[in-house]
Every structure is written in structure tokens, then in C-alpha cells.
Specification:
By secondary structure, this protein is α/β, with parallel strands linked by helices. The chain has a single domain, classed as Metal-dependent hydrolases (TIM Barrel). Helix content is 27%, strand content 24%. The protein has an 8-stranded parallel beta sheet. A 4-stranded antiparallel beta sheet has the order 3-17-18-19, covered by helices on one side. Strand 15 and strand 16 form a beta hairpin. The longest helix is centred in the N-terminal third of the chain and has 17 residues.
Length: 368
């Protein structure tokens, strides 16, 4: 039951029928959650070339319990050989593990971002470098052609050629970790960029009142935007205002989860860096107060959109399902509960908090 109507769904690997039903109850059925930005989970770091495949499998199994059915492991700024190694390792895991089907593609976030403190976020400064199409092709070879999303800063010289070339290969280009001026953002959109990565974060602590790159991206109708709705990265006032500016149709929930997500407080790895999960659920660079991803779960993210963003449950689910599938070009997931779509479902209760009961991938129950 979802959106006020009880339905019956027939399926095998794909949905074969959707009909209204007389039966009903308090349980909700929706398309499975889609997270297009996951750096790690359950203590497992996706940015290390050495992460064992059985640990990756364990992290995906845990993710199933949060309602996630498809996600993009995300490789952040690192040394060239480390990024290639991480992508190669993830691609092997995707092809070899039963859980690999949930890894529907890969997101490369950096290294072509701002080197300035603030916009750079927790990305290591010494690894930031200019856009290079040859490097992108090396990533894609290591990833076995499965990179679907790339985040760049549009202030780099000749970035429009890079965006046009990457977009022409069917890869979504997103703006993020940027110090761009308005004309550079407009040029990036004209070249093919369609998304802002975790808008409101990866920014200077102090910005001029206006104009600035947050306002410019909010006002750009050609950009959708992703948001980290953990109550830490964004205050409720910004989250509400940003969703209203973008509209729900162009807003996307992401976790930006890093390895400590779903784990106990302590010290973990994010690529070449150590990070701490604090008792109040913040992920920070070790010994610092700089955020380094999040510990957010997707089920809690949907809850927070309702509670902090003050939107409906139906709209929150849309931000966690159809919208990320659309901007991330996830095949078979852009129409919702419709014939022909992949049979990815989450069954949950909602009492002010999303409580996942079952998760299904390709018509197979993987949790519950």
C-alpha cells in the first residue's frame, strides 16, 4: 500500500502487472531505494584497492536492511593508481559476487575538483588535479565500462570539452566541490552537466551573501541536486528551502555514507585517510572536526526528509527512488511500480520512522 491506494504487484525478475486491490493495511510498498553516492558501509571502505570481496558482500547485505536495492559505490579523490585499483576491485566484486547486482554502476567524485579549503571538503589536496579525458578512459577501462556518474568542479580551464565528451559516453556529469562563478556553472550545464553533488556541502565556511555558487546552482533549472539529509550536513532550514527551490522533482536523497556508516564509533579508513565516527554519529577526518562523508542510512534519510524537510512520505520516497534512478541513469528503475521495471521493492512500516520489513532485488527477497 502506498500513496493512498492498495495495489497488487505481479513479478518475476521484472514487474509483470500492477493492479488496484480491495485489500489494504498499514504496510507500505515502494520501489527499492537507490543511493548514487556511497563511499563505504558497515566498516568497509570502497576506496581501497585491497578491500576483500567478502567484506564488500557483507556491507551490501547490511545495506539491504536499510531498503537499498541499487547503489553506486563512490571513489573519491586519490592518487591515480589508488583510484584505478579501487575501481578495478569494485568492478571485480560486482561481477563475481551475488550481491554485486546491487552495485549498479560507479560514481567517481573528484579528483577534478577545487583545491581550495572549504570546497575541497575532506578530499586530499595533494591529489586534486585538472580534468583529463585520458584519465577518465583509464577509469572506465578499470571499471569495465560501468562508471555512470562523475563529479567535477566547472571552474577548471577547458572543462566544457571534458563534460561534453563524458556526457556523450552516457555518463552523468555532476557539479560539486566547486568554487565556480555563475558563468562557469551555466557553461557546465550547457555542456551537459545535469546534477549538483550534495548541494550545500563541500563549500566555504563563509560565503559572500550573493551571488555565490550555492545560489547559482539552486537557481539553475537545468540542474537537479542531491542532498545529505542526516541532520548534520544540512540544517532543516536549508534543506526545506533547497527542496522548495529545486522542487521535489529535481531533488535527490543521497547518504554520502563512508565506511563507518552502520558501524560502532571508532576509527576507520576512507581511502588514504583515517576518519572517526563520533558518539554523536558524525564522520570526521581523524583528530579534526571536518566532515568526511556521513553515517546516514537510506531508511533514516527518508525519515529525515519527512521530519526535517517537511515533505510528504510519498515525496520523500520519490527522492530516494525515481529521482536518483533518473539522474544516475539506472536502467529499469525510472518509472516506479510499473510493468517492465525491475522487481526491486522495499516493504516498510511508517510511524514517523521508516522501519524496513523486506527488501527485494530482481524479484528475490534479500532481507526480511
Amino acid at each position: 500500500m502506498f500513496g493512498g491506494s492498495a495495489v497488487e504487484v505481479g513479478f518475476d525478475r521484472n514487474i509483470t502487472s500492477v493492479t488496484l486491490s480491495e485489500a489494504g493495511g498499514g504496510t507500505y510498498l515502494s520501489p527499492g531505494f537507490v543511493d548514487i553516492q556511497v563511499n563505504g558501509f558497515a566498516g568497509v571502505d570502497y576506496n581501497s584497492p585491497l578491500t576483500p570481496h567478502d567484506e564488500i558482500a557483507r556491507s551490501v547485505q547490511y545495506m539491504y536492511s536499510t531498503g537499498v536495492t541499487r547503489f553506486y559505490p563512490t571513489v573519491i579523490t586519490g592518487a591515480p593508481h589508488d583510484m584505478l585499483g579501487a575501481l578495478r576491485n569494485l568492478a571485480m566484486a560486482k561481477d563475481e559476487l551475488p550481491e554485486g547486482r546491487a552495485m549498479d554502476g560507479f560514481h567517481v567524485e573528484g579528483p577534478h575538483i577545487s583545491a581550495e579549503d572549504g570546497p575541497r571538503g575532506a578530499h586530499p589536496k595533494h591529489c586534486v588535479r585538472k580534468p583529463d579525458l585520458e584519465e577518465f578512459l583509464r577509469w572506465q577501462e578499470a571499471a569495465r565500462g560501468q562508471i555512470r556518474l562523475v563529479t567535477v568542479a566547472p571552474e577548471w580551464p577547458n572543462i566544457t570539452r571534458y563534460i561534453e565528451s563524458v556526457s556523450a559516453q552516457g555518463v552523468t556529469v555532476s557539479i560539486g566541490h566547486t568554487n565556480a562563478e555563475a558563468h562557469e556553472i551555466r557553461a557546465a550545464v550547457s555542456a551537459g552537466a545535469i546534477l549538483s553533488t550534495h548541494l550545500g556541502n563541500g563549500a566555504h565556511a563563509t560565503l559572500r551573501r550573493h551571488p555565490n555558487y550555492i545560489w547559482d546552482q539552486l537557481a539553475e533549472d537545468g540542474l537537479s541536486a542531491s542532498f545529505i539529509a542526516d541532520g548534520i550536513h544540512l540544517p532543516a532550514c536549508f534543506l526545506k528551502s533547497a527542496i522548495r527551490a529545486k522542487t521535489v522533482a529535481r531533488s535527490v536523497l543521497v547518504t554520502d555514507a563512508s565506511s563507518p556508516a552502520g558501524a560502532a564509533p571508532g576509527r576507520y579508513r576512507l581511502g588514504e585517510q583515517e576518519v572517526d565516527l563520533t558518539p554523536d554519529n558524525r564522520v570526521v577526518l581523524a583528530g579534526q572536526d571536518k566532515l568526511a562523508g556521513s553515517a546516514l542510512r537510506m531508511d533514516d534519510g527518508v525519515t529525515n526528509l519527512v521530519r526535517l524537510g517537511e515533505i510528504s512520505l510519498a515525496d520523500a520516497v520519490r527522492m530516494a527512488t525515481l529521482n536518483p534512478a533518473r539522474v544516475g541513469q539506472v536502467p529499469g528503475r525510472t518509472k516506479g511500480l510499473a510493468e517492465g521495471e525491475r522487481a526491486d521493492f522495499v516493504v516498510f512500516d511508517f510511524d514517523g520512522q521508516v522501519r524496513v520489513r523486506e527488501t527485494w532485488v530482481d524479484g528475490e527477497k534479500v532481507f526480511g
